[in-house]
User: Fold this.
Amino acid sequence: MKHVENERLKLLVNALDRASTTCLTVGVAGPLAAAVYNLNGFGEAIETRKLTIGLLGWLSTAVILHLCGRYVLRWLKP
Assistant:
C-alpha cells in the first residue's frame, strides 16, 4: 500500500511544481517580454513600480509552490 501512497504524493508534487512553473511563465516571463518588446504599448502604459510589485508577487508565489512540493516529498515512505 505504501507504493500507492508514494505515487499519489509524487502526483501532488508534480502538480505543485507545474503550478509554480505556470506562475513563473505567466506572471514573470510574459509581462517582462511585453515590457521589453513594448507589445501593444505595454512598456509605456505600465509604471515600473507596479510591474516590479507584480513580478515579485508572481515570483514569490512560484517559489512558495515549489518549496511546498519539496516539503511534500519528505512524506515519501521508504
